[in-house]
């Protein structure tokens, strides 16, 4: 994979991230669903309008898909696959956990990816055969061979627990 193509992709994704940071606010509060949906669409459109010209210039022969919810096999050839704002609902609500994701798929295989978290300025990249990186530093799998001392996380939907009289959380009482 060309380092020039990776560099052009990273530059485009960073540019889209900078644009999104001008739209992002932790004070964001939409008054209703129509405004929320309008903000979601506007974010996606702004990012696509930034990425598409830059990525088309970097690789003019590649097709374009900016629907991360697509289904079925892709046609042969090279395709830019874009998730304009992953976690867009979070971004619109002023939460920091959202990203911009770009992949290049060649004949059904992902060969390049860049995922940028603008709030944290974290750029994850990967290219086929070369591994994955965070801000240019190679990522490595953990050397742990057992679960002793491993960090794991779980979450429970808010409907499963309710506040109790002691200020803690308890399962809802059966009805």
How do the strands and helices of this protein lay out in sequence?
Elements: H1 3-23, H2 33-58, E1 63-65, E2 78-86, H3 88-92, E3 99-106, E4 109-117, E5 122-127, E6 131-134, E7 137-138, E8 162-163, E9 169-170
Parallel strand pairs: 1-2
Antiparallel strand pairs: 2-3, 3-4, 4-5, 5-6, 6-7, 8-9
Helix pairs in contact: 1-2
Structure characteristics:
175 residues; alpha+beta; 7-stranded mixed β-sheet; two-stranded antiparallel ribbon; globular
Write up this protein:
30% of the residues lie in helices and 26% in strands. The protein is α+β, with helices and mostly antiparallel strands. The strands form two sheets. A seven-stranded mixed sheet has the order 1-2-3-4-5-6-7. The protein has a two-stranded antiparallel ribbon with strand order 8-9. The radius of gyration is 20 Å and the shape is globular. The model has no long low-confidence stretch (mean pLDDT 87).
How far the N terminus sits from the C terminus, by CA atoms, comes to: 59 Å
Oligomer: single chain
Number of helices: 3
Q: Give the strand order of the largest sheet, numbering strands 1, 2, ... along the chain.
A: 1-2-3-4-5-6-7
What's the main sheet like? Answer: 7 strands, mixed
Number of strands: 9
**Roughly what fraction of the amino acids lie in strands?**
25-35%
Cα gyration radius (Å): 20 Å
| Helix content, binned percent | 25-40%
Computed structural class = alpha+beta
Q: Which consecutive residue ranges, at least 5 long each, have pLDDT under 50?
A: none
Mean pLDDT: 87
Overall outline: globular
Helix-strand pattern, N to C?
A: HHEEHEEEEEEE
């Amino acid at each position: 994979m060309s380092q020039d193509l990776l560099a052009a992709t990273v530059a485009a994704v960073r540019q889209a991230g900078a644009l999104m940071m001008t739209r992002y606010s932790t004070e964001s509060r939409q008054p209703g669903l129509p405004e929320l949906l309008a903000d979601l669409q506007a974010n996606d459109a702004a990012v696509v309008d930034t990425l598409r010209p830059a990525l088309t210039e970097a690789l003019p022969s590649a097709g374009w898909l900016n629907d991360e919810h697509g289904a079925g096999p892709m046609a042969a050839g090279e395709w830019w696959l874009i998730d304009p704002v992953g976690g867009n609902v979070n971004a619109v609500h002023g939460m920091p956990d959202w990203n911009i994701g770009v992949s290049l798929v060649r004949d059904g295989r992902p060969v390049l990816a860049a995922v940028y978290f603008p709030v944290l300025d974290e750029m994850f990249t990967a290219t086929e055969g070369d591994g994955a990186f965070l801000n240019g530093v190679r990522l490595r799998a953990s050397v742990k061979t057992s679960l002793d001392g491993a960090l794991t996380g779980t979450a429970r939907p808010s409907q499963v627990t309710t506040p109790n009289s002691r200020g803690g959380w308890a399962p809802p009482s059966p009805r």
